[in-house]
Amino acid sequence: MKLKTFTKNNRYTVMLLGLMALILVFFTATKGGAFWKLSLWKGMTMQFPEYGCMTLGLMFAFISGHMDMSFVALGDFASILAVNYMSAHVVDGMTNGQVGSIMFVAILIALSIAIIGGAINAVLVSRLNIPPVMATIAMQLVWTGFSTALTKGYAVKGLPALYTEIGHMELFGFLSIPLLIFIVLFIIAAFLLKFTVFGEKLYMMGNNLKAARFSAINTHNMLLTSYILSAVYSCIGCLIMVSTMGSAKADYGTSYVMRCILILVLAGVLPDGGMGKIMDVLLSIITIQIIATGVNMFPQLNTYYASLIWGGLLIIVLIVSTRMSGGTVRVRKPRKAPQKTA
Fold this sequence. Notes:
The protein is mainly alpha-helical.
């Protein structure tokens, strides 16, 4: 009886654990010992933090019952400005301390741009009443346009060696810096959702926007905060991506938009708003990374199949999620009572 109750209350957790088990069995059967090489799994810890951070940020928008399609484009633009600043101010002969100071200022510039971008999204949606999908798609085009105009479509290089080392550095021989950054951001997100009034209000707002307003919740400020968090987390993910790739470009990470949405839907953080557990999001991130790494082990499946794989998987997950929720997935669906937070 307890198992049945647990399964009913944690449907997405059970589904994710079952899916992960099936995936591990499949790749073990098809690739054998090659799949369980330590180097392969260490490589995973270097890869998922960049889009994992973006997913955590997008989660705040989803829980509030809103969509953000501009987070990668905004992060790319912010990271391009940061790279330009670093390449313009770092010269040969500087000490690590001097280079570190320039890097710190560049990161602050990028985060400031992210905050401004998140605030613009909130104003368009909350104050001007533009549908979230349309508003953020428009801003996605704006940020991509700015990035392309600034770089002429080329990759921006000239990063200091100290910055590129961050994306490949390991602590204690196993903990990569990108993974450490992801862990810190995950803990912050979990704390905000589980132990703060902000998290409680965010779930309430996603469950029933009118009830949240009648409960004296400032929904405009809540939406502003959620969009800013989405932008800041995505910006950090893009900064990690720039460090690992050694350059910045207007179209870096564009495939991450659908991947992040897929991860959230798979974890039960649906566009309805007001639902989802952050531990399920973590399980979903790991599951998607295992799939991505496993698929790359098949040489006949080149990178051009990625969109097909993620798109097909997203459709399947949406069908399953719709069945599990007992109806259609909509952008916002009023509910009588908020569900338990993460």
